[in-house]
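Field: sequence (string)
Field: structure_tokens (string)

Example rows 1 and 2, in order.
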Amino acid sequence: MIISGKPKDFTDSYKILESWDNCLRICRNDSNCVMIYKISDTLCEVFQFGEITSVDRSSLASDGVIAFKVKSSFDQCPSDNPFYSSKSISYLNLNETENELYNTTYTYSNGSLDIQYSITKCPNDTQIFIREQLAVCIGLFYFPSPNLCNNQPKASALCKENNGTLTGPANSNEYAYIQAQSQASYNTSNPGKYSYLTYWIDGVSLSGKYNYAFEDPTHNGIANYVWAENCPLYQSAGYCLYNPNAKGYYISDIE
């Protein structure tokens, strides 16, 4: 997003000798770049995550040009300035290697663009994912011995004990991760007398087919659930959703 303004408060930066168009491409492709400032047609200044905290947008800085990242859910640039409808907009950048989410928030007020930063890191044995503007940490938790198999209310309680909630996949990437963790548990957590371990997933049936109550409202219900053949089996209330086979890719329901 390109607007008028000049850097005001910052701790560090670096300059590159490139055309403005190339500067835009470089920043867009650099996950650490949050903002660039056009010094001339062949020179720009680059600011990385955490380095710049405010931009002067007063009339004295109206001849300056800056660009910063905002994530769009559309296939093309928005027709209106996002600040017309909101005083704050955020850019989320997922660092999968470090399992961290970098959030940059831009707030416009009184001739100044203020920038705030935050880092979300997930606990061990969980993976971070982005749902719209929300970061979630997904993991599989095992019932403690000797009750390695237990019911859905106990599964819900176990998630809450770990400061979480039962959830389901919000997209195919989350589903693939959940399945991979479940399949890994076949080798690392299998108590021996079971052929495989199953896992509970968010959803308790109400009356009618495909009608469920959920603990977690952020995963779009059953939109990304992959059902076993002829499932769900039941259309009355009180049936819980689970994966019946850790080596399979399908979801079923059980009382």
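Row 2 begins here:
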Amino acid sequence: MAGAALEAIMQQKRFLRTQVRQELRNMIPARRSEEDAAIQNHVIASNWFKKSNQICAYVSCANLREVDTTKILAECLKKSEVPKKLFVPRIEDKESHMRMLHIDSIKDLLANSMNILEPTSSNSCGQPRSDVLESTEPVDIILLPGLAFDQAGNRLGRGGGYYDLFLNNYLLHAKEKGWERPLLGMDGACIFDSDTE
């Protein structure tokens, strides 16, 4: 029975992914741009973003029709009184392994074989980039992409499992260190775990 129930859930997910992808393809570009801007402006103006020190965020890919994160990434990388440390994803293999590596500039990103921007494994000095799973400081916010989310914040990804595995590993790391759970933002629309503004 458990196998049949699991297969039914997987079938529902495949159906929902197909339906959402079709809706995204049919979205009018002007409306998409307006919604992307509204989400980014909401994130950047929020108190939880302003107070954050370390952030993990995806680098949006227009071909995947993800919410644009360009302004959010630029705001994180901007030189300011309270600089933010930004970690972005790097796909390591086809087994859902992904690392979140620190970058100092958008220039640190190169297109991979799928034409998705990601950091090189080492910086311009040849030193390995710091990995968030080796960080001595907690992450305040994790912004994750997704195809769909429910009102409880449950995420439907693209089916590769990269972000699910990363999030599980990070949350275990944070628990071992005694850190608070980070605020989870899904495709720019934040899901609150507490009374955070």
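free_text_note (row 2): The mean pLDDT is 86.
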